[in-house]
Design brief:
The structure holds two protein chains of two kinds. By secondary structure, chain A is mainly β. Chain A has no helices and eleven strands. Chain B has no helices and eleven strands. Chain B is globular, with a radius of gyration of 13 Å. At the A-B interface, strand 4, strand 5, strand 9 and strand 10 of A face strand 5 and strand 10 of B.
């Protein structure tokens, strides 16, 4: 089945630093999504990308849909303690676009 | 708040038992998806219902079943429970059942944590 390789698995950074994480796939995806999950909660949608090359921002977050349609990255600028959590990439592929495939997640820790 | 409601939040049961997890989608959403999240497997798609009918199946065990009712809420039934079924179970909903664009974005509930002892 589809697989997404998300890296890094975890990051430990200082408050104020910028963060970058990415996802790659061996096959083409039609939609890329980035979610954040806090402990005990469900994933919350951060950014949705629909076109190859698309660059979208949501506050301090910026994500891009790779030109090859096989990758995406998420950047967080000027990190703050509440950025702590697990960030997941997800994508849909194929004709029906209903099935979300998730990466394994990136655990982000921000030291104040 | 995503607008997707899942109950119960926690469930503790014994091996061999059967449980039912409930999900109410966001107002107006026709599709409901069920996912299992475990430490070693990550988020795994189980099954999708669209407007009352099964639309897609993922890695769902035969011991598990789901349905979507006329009011669009959904239930996930887990039977003959095993220790390995302990996990977080998430429900998500979207406006449509597939295709491109914002109407197919899935919004997740807070999950049900199932512990099988």
């Amino acid at each position: 089945g589809q697989q997404l390789n998300q890296s890094p698995q975890s990051m430990f950074i200082q408050e104020g630093e910028d963060v970058s994480m990415n996802c790659t796939s061996s096959s083409i995806f039609n939609t890329w999504l980035w979610y954040k999950q806090d402990p005990g909660e469900g994933p919350v949608l951060l950014i949705a990308l629909y076109k190859a090359g698309e660059l979208t921002s949501n506050g301090r977050l910026t994500a891009q849909f790779g030109i090859t349609r096989k990758d995406s990255f998420l950047n967080i600028s000027a990190s703050i303690p509440s950025d702590v959590g697990i960030y997941f990439c997800a994508g849909t592929s194929g004709g029906s676009n209903y099935k979300l495939t998730f990466g394994k997640g990136t655990l982000l820790t921000v030291n104040p | 708040d995503s607008g997707v409601t899942q109950t119960p939040k926690h469930l503790i049961t014994a091996t061999g038992q059967r449980v039912t997890l409930r999900c109410s989608p966001r107002s107006g959403d026709l599709s409901v998806y069920w996912y299992q999240q475990s430490l070693d497997q990550g988020l795994q798609f189980l099954i999708q219902y669209y407007n009352g009918e099964e639309r897609a199946k993922g890695n769902i065990l035969e011991r598990f079943s789901a349905q979507q009712f006329p009011d669009l809420h959904s239930e996930l039934n887990l039977s003959s429970l095993e220790l390995g079924d302990s996990a977080l179970y998430f429900c998500a909903s979207s406006a449509t059942g597939g295709g491109f664009g914002a109407k197919n974005i899935q919004y997740f509930g807070a999950g049900t944590r199932l512990s099988v002892l």
